[in-house]
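Run log, item B.
One chain of 471 residues. Sequence copied directly from the ordering sheet:
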Amino acid sequence: MDALQEAATACVGCDCDEELAGGEAAAGGAMEAAVRALLVGLGEDHRREGLRRTPKRVAKAFRDGTRGYKQNVKDIVQGALFPERGVDKNTGSAGGTGGQVVVRDIDHFSYCESCLLPFSIRCHVGYVPSGGRVVGLSKLSRVADVFAKRFQSPQRIANEVCSALHASIQPAGVAVAMQCWHIPLPENMKCKSSQIWIRTSHSSRSGVFEGENSSLWNDFLALVKLRGIDMEMDSHSAILPWCPLTPHDEVPPCNGHAKGATNGSTSPRSGSTPSSMVSAVSSMILSLGEDPLRKELVVSPQRYVQWLMRFRACNIDVKWNGFTLNRPGEAATDHGAIKSEMHLPFCAQCEHHLLPFYGVVHIGYFGNGDGKGIDRSSFQALVNFYGCKLQVQERMTRQIAEAVYTISRRGSIVVVEANHICMISRGVEKIRSSTATIAVLGHFLTDSCAKASFLQNIIPNITHGGNMMEL
């Protein structure tokens, strides 16, 4: 791929030429050097096309994703409190006595402090005004974003948002409820369960929302439930770890109200972790203004490297075990011979930002007319082979199509549908965006009816399609 092609397929919204001043430039340079060390550890050549600017892109993505360390809640809320008296001057007067204001469905991304991978947040914030003042509604989202853009855990971010809002706007009380989704391990994406994403719910409350029998807290949950969101909270800690890279015996205590994580997580695969890569990640954390020795972050560089090593460059060739469906040049006139395998799940790593992208692959090919075809497990192995490495979706689609074409010489067609974390966890923040790519070879190129027949059979899959938050 030449430089022009790389620019055409680069992730949308990447602005890697921003000017950094003074200490930021030095920190950025340190981060880029650390990313180059990671690429070398993965067996990649950081000088090849497609990876040349990856260190700059990754550094910028991490800076965007942790910009909350340099933001102050008081600066956001200052000047955004407005007089709005209600029926009297008592507590809650701005909305009537005991009234509350709730902003729902605030979408954010944060970085998991246990493994340094992004996770999705859907936040619901409520407060009861006091002193005849209300706060600008957008400020509730912006305050939540300050704490989301840091290395976090679900319960901590709920607590910090609640405390910050209570201190800055001085209401009668604040209620925060959060639903969080963590990307699973690649092997767990092969399961057919609709709960492949690790999901957990957490809450925090202050003032008039506190207490087991708080009617205002019940009102808050009812207002959230009007959106079809069930945020009934349990008062016990999660049984399973929130982060899939955290062993089951490392479940941290939870001081808030948490609904146990729903996952099929397994402990990370054992094996040595290159110390040079771990040191590189620790230097990245330090460059972002965090303390890599903070107890919650001490093991995080090792877990992050364990994740990356799942996508290590591999020279092993994929084997098809002697499958032969058709001879080259055989006519393709029978549309009934079209075979397909739909919704083959995958998880790959974007080589531009070292962030995951995941989704499903649909494969079509011409059979030999006897009703037999390649079994699904062989296609899943093929998808995994091309997915578990540093990739771009366009290349992965073409590679799978070419591999299938080597077996069915009459034609192959591949459609890949994916969600890219790099599109939604950094500056672009297109929360519900998804990407579809298609590669067509052989008779599918010349036979429009055959191509249309395959495409019409791709049925939307609610489990793997749509977006990660299972809306």
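Observations after the first pass:
- The chain has a mean pLDDT of 80.
- The CA atoms of residues 204 and 256 lie 6 Å apart.
Flagged for discussion on Thursday.
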